[in-house]
Amino acid sequence: MMQQYRSNSYLFGGNAPYVEEMYEAYLDNPGSVPENWRAYFDALQNVPAVDGSDNRDVAHAPVIESFAQRARANAFGNKASSTELAVARKQVHVQSLIAAYRNVGSRWADLDPLKRTERPKIPELEPAFYDLSESDMDISFSATNTYFSKAETMTLREIVQALRETYCGTIGAEIMHITDQVEKRWWQERLESVRAKPAFSPEKKKHILNRLTAAEGLERYLHTKYVGQKRFSLEGGESFIASMDEVVQSAGAQGVQEIVIGMAHRGRLNVLVNTLGKMPGDLFAEFEHKAPEDLPAGDVKYHQGFSSDVSTAGGPVHLSLAFNPSHLEIVNPVVEGSVKARMDRRGDAEGDQVLPVLVHGDAAFAGQGVVMETLALAQTRGYYTGGTLHIVINNQIGFTTSDPRDTRSTLYCSDVVKMIEAPVLHVNGDDPEAVVLATQLALEYRQQFNKDVVVDIVCFRKLGHNEQDTPALTQPLMYKSIAKHPGTRKLYGDKLVAQGVLAADGPDEMVKAFRAAMDEGRHTVDPVLTNFKSKYATDWSPYLGKKWTDSCDTALPVTEWKRLAEKVTTVPAGFKVHPLVEKVLADRAAMGRGEINVDWGMGEHMAFASLVASGYPVRLSGEDCGRGTFVHRHAVLHDQNREKFDEGIYIPLQNVGEGQAPFVVIDSILSEEAVLGFEYGYASADPQTLTIWEAQFGDFVNGAQVVIDQFIASGEVKWGRANGLTMMLPHGYEGQGPEHSSARLERFMQLAADNNMQVVQPTTASQIFHLLRRQQLRMFRKPLVIMTPKSLLRNKDATSPLNEFTKGEFKTVIAEQNPDIDAAKVKRVIACSGKVYYDLVKARGEKKDVAIIRVEQLYPFPHKAFAAEIKKYGAASDIVWCQDEPQNQGAWFFVQHYIHENMLDGQKLGYAGRPASASPAVGYAHLHQDQQKALLEQAFGKLKGFILTK
């Protein structure tokens, strides 16, 4: 046994957590360890630290190795008697046992309500593994590094019993992966002091049963009244509603004033009625297809959001359930962004007043990448939301047909959260009191440490994936167990009757009372506040119900232009900018004075400066936003003489004037899906802020397509949710290959309908200036997709004179710019969008019979402006659409119908561009040049291929 112990135990093994426990206890309080160990630790303080410093603490590896060497030599306690030596050794063994329970006790916890498998054998949890026998069970050992008792010693029997109750009951805690010792000890104290068992009052127990009754009652009512209709039942996981009730009430008592909830469809209807207080009658109307149908598309009832205000011991709490499509975890970053906007509105830097709650399914939590991407945002500066409470409705099955062995490669569905060291409490759903206790502890941890935490409710799913499914087809064993299960409410009700908390008919009376409330369509949450209005609530009414308009006065008075230009080009005295940036600032100062034309970067800066000066916050995020991927922005300046990493930063746009609105620029983590979802969520909660996400290259947006499809493009027609998010997507064919050329313009054009978004491709500095200002100054909010350029950022032809900023507005169509071209003599009109315009102008040379017009706004298509340009050229026989992209991509398939609609009788429409391709662009430079030359020749040559006649 001792040989096995020496080769495998924590004492001589690689991780040695018992050494950590003993030594860390000594470092915290030398008097907390036995005297002989304290003397030894004192001596070890003289061991040099790894870094050569003279710190009191030392590297733990030498300490562990020293223990091993002395133990192997039987050298510990030279001055001690053999009895003392034996006791000391056994004390170490006891510490190893305690460490084992803290580390892996959750694997032996009683977590499965269905009890389908036997508990695994875990030798590390047996005293015999550490050479502790029955004869040692009544010996007293030091318990000063535990929280089971106020006594300094406990018998081994008492210690083992306390460990099993705490770490192997109906709560299985995973906390030892946390490296912060304060947090780890906090969890040990909270769990061990109560043996992971609650001591609720009779009234609290009745309330828990009431919530279980409501959860089960709603599902059974719907199952009876609306047979066969999909609702994604919560049956088998009713304790989740008790958990959500505790979240609301306990969070309110701890100062939380807003809770934003994201969850997929499992149990969503139950949350709507039994947590947020949606009137049951309104839900029934949706089942009966009587709900208002004032949206162009609408959505199914189990995707709907809702908001309400409820009363708690700490005051009113506003609850928001985010609208969510069927893509399950994709709502996670949207919720986080919404929370961040609410925090900013309140000035709540730590997130103490606003709480994000994300509800997961076990399979989705383990399987979907956006979970990891969102977790990676948790402690970053631009996306910090004060910690998220994660609740897993763990059905132990995932989808109906999946074999549990195939749902994940990790032991627990929650293992992904260990990447940010989030603690996890696994809890048996059949023990609702344990579920509520776990929720209390998780929320207390979040509020104290402002970090993520997980409550994994291990339960089951009584019905199939939906109510039309027959799960026994593929899961016969599991559903035999489920068929025998009486239900969590029944088990808990019987328990309370046995305890004398309720009379024998008490549980049934609760069922009858809830049924009566359902029949009458009354609230099941008490009390819901119907007239409460928070001063922090966002008023969207000024932006709703407005008709589309392209026009908006976005000109900036010349005096204000020059004032702001000076602000954004000035740095503090003694601040040393890089020589290249110094030249950029000098050039921009000249642009501000009107001495030279304004380039793209300055146009952007002046748009941002004018907005924040007028009280509109600006939030810009992406993977390289501070300087800009193409080093054109320089919004964040770095002192070249700085000596510390977190010093020597200056952001001119944060210093344009007293009382200005915030300007925030964030270099994000390398994520598209989570960051774009976050910014969509931010914009959904704050119409006042110009919220921008910029892709490093436009094609990177591919990684966030779900956010675009299911939120940005369709959120308004499905849910009536306006959103003013702006996306900047670098796009243009510069010979950089298939992955760095196209932002997939065609995908946005395909999604464009019902005036749901704006798709634009500006070509001058003044255009981006007016476009960004228009986005915020118009009194309605629509997503804006900007195909931003690359080469045009430094193309002098794309610069604009000062008067184009102090006058005018965004032009949806830009007319022919050559004054020498006589409209009456034009034989061909080339319409285009983006960078290719400059290529066309160069290729045209001295030709006077070809006019080139630019469509700057591709959707909504500017019919009036475009038709007005076409009418100028009555003698033209040909209209050609020219684009850089392959024929099956870009805007061609979508604009051809718009162009045809506005052509004059007898005119023919043709295409000039790259041939159709399976790839966005070629990867060889010479092929790119050949294609570019060919498309330009085609634009001016004879019409070929597809020709459409008016």
SS element count, helices: 31
So what's the overall shape? globular
Q: Uncertain segments of ≥5 residues (pLDDT<50)?
A: 1-16, 48-55, 75-79
Overall pLDDT confidence: 89
Q: State the helical fraction.
A: 25-40%
CATH class of the largest domain: Alpha Beta
- CATH third-level topology of the largest domain: Rossmann fold
Distance between the termini: 93 Å
- What is Rg? 33 Å
**From the helix content, strand content and strand pairing, which structural class follows?**
alpha/beta
Percent of residues in β-strands: 5-15%
Largest sheet: number of strands, sense, barrel closure: 9 strands, mixed
**Whole-number total of structural domains:** 4
CATH level-two architecture of the largest domain: 3-Layer(aba) Sandwich
Order of strands across the widest beta sheet? 3-9-10-8-7-4-6-5-11
Structure summary, number of beta strands:
26
State the fourth-level CATH superfamily of the largest domain.
Answer: Thiamin diphosphate (ThDP)-binding fold, Pyr/PP domains
Account of the protein in words:
With 950 residues, this protein is of the alpha/beta class. The protein has 4 domains: 191 residues, no CATH class; 325 residues, Thiamin diphosphate (ThDP)-binding fold, Pyr/PP domains (Rossmann fold, 3-Layer(aba) Sandwich); 249 residues, Rossmann fold, CATH 3.40.50.12470; 137 residues, Rossmann fold (3-Layer(aba) Sandwich), CATH 3.40.50.11610. Helices cover 38% and strands 13% of the residues. The protein contains 31 helices and 26 strands. The strands form 5 sheets. The protein has a 9-stranded mixed sheet. Strands 15-12-16-17-19-18-23 form a 7-stranded mixed sheet. Helix 28 links the parallel strand 21 and strand 22. The longest helix is centred in the first third of the chain and has 24 residues. The N terminus is likely disordered.
